[in-house]
Input
Amino acid sequence: MQTTTPAFSAATLAIDPAAETERIVATLRAQLRGPLRKRGLVLGLSGGIDSSVCAALAARAAGPQKVFCLFMPENDSDPESLRLGRLVAETFGLASIVEDIGPALEAMGCYSRRDSFIRHAVPEYGPGWKSKIVLASVLSTGGYNLSSLVVESPDGHVQTVRMPAPVYLGIVAATNMKQRTRKQLEYYHADRLNYAVLGTPNRLEYDQGFFVKNGDGAADAKPIAHLYKSQVYQLAEYLGVPEAVRRRPPTTDTYSLAQTQEEFYFALPYDKMDLCLHALDHGIPAAEVAQAVSLREEDVEKVWIDIGAKRKVARYLHCEPLLCG
Output
């Protein structure tokens, strides 16, 4: 009897969440007992889907009493992140603490350095203004990654300007202090408790370099780095992550203006990016992918080119320190 191959679609990335949970939990337990030799797990809770799923997995692996969560808001954070993070900790019975990193960032000049670079592009930028960096869709730029600076004045006027490379690099360098400061606190608490630090990137972020080196990219274990973000959502439902977290659109929560992840980094929303990434790695024709993600074939090809370009960026981020002897 002739069988037909199922059409490529979102169902291609369906997993058995119960089996996957048990596999991850068993692996984490073995890692704690073996190479890590630690008593429990520390992680930062952002109120997002990835850290929430990691918290639930940590609770199953080490036991809720051996998981310690940090909420690390700063001057630009959305208050909703702290509220949802607390909700997750309460849901899974996890100990937690608020570490406001705003004063530390202020002292290091994170905000003043960033604002100084912004003023090179927008001289009037000052107190009460807000900003973010946005990435134009490769579908509209012919495959090129072009970033712009968006600023909003205190009276609500919004303008978008192109940035010279030094301005872009300066803003990003100052902003990266946020992720590195959070990681410093995670390791402080991990050291005092003799716990391991849990990293929270999903496969899409890990593959494409959507993290800061020695910031949110640093960890002792990364339990969901092999899972596409759409699969992380499947685990979230199975694990009982609060619906409010599962409904929240993915956000960077890094800049003072609200910013989606695709605005800052990804060419498409996560569900379509997952399928494009999977298809590229498994040799699925662009025509099939185009039908699954409602794009033209040529647009799928542009996304694939963008994936390749970002993998080149990610290569450095994944690189271990280089030795000369």
